[in-house]
Amino acid sequence: MSELWAKLRTFFGMDSLPTLAKSTEPAKQCYARFASSQGFKLFPIQFEALAQFIADSAEEMSTETTKSYISHLRSYHIDKGYTTDVFNIKCILRGAACKYGKWPKSERLEITSEILQAVLTVEIKTLGENPF
Predict the structure, then answer these.
(1) Is 116 within the bounds of a domain?
(2) Which residue range is the domain that position 28 belongs to?
């Protein structure tokens, strides 16, 4: 983190905010598992590896999550000074979205007193006599 960035974070009271390194970690871990299982070099990411990662991850998780991971991996490349030419992959992302579609959002139910009591009952039974 640059000295200027550190001063700005302190000035605006943002010392507790996550850094970019922390926010890109899930994407890096997911890509690392994929790359090692397929025999690809980790970084800098090559086009063939990225295209295959998009195809595989879009099938396993939502295309929106895949897009988010790609964005985080691109940010990581920028931070490390790697070229970002490999990330010109809009047509691949569109193709994945067409093939796998968007996952429907889960219905969000209102938390009623009955639901809250049921959750608390399960938690109390799970934690036992001494929850701490």
Answers:
(1) no
(2) 3-104
| Structural element, H or E, at residue 101 | none
Q: Does some domain include residue 122?
A: no
Cβ contact 42:86 at 8 Å: no
33's tokens: 């598992």
Q: How many distinct structural domains can be found in the chain? A: 1
Q: Which one, of 104, 42, 48, 109, lies nearest residue 77 by Cα?
A: 42
* Cβ atoms 28, 76 nearer than 8 A: yes
> For residue 14, what is the domain's CATH number?
1.10.150
3-state secondary structure 70-82: HHHHHHHHHHHCC
Helix axes 47-60, 63-80, angle to 10 degrees: 150
Residue 128 lies in a domain: no
Residue 21 counted as domain residue: yes
In order along its 132 residues, the chain shows pLDDT tens digits of 567 666 666 666 555 445 555 677 888 888 899 999 999 988 888 888 888 888 888 778 877 888 888 888 988 888 888 888 878 777 677 777 767 766 666 777 787 888 878 877 776 666 565 544
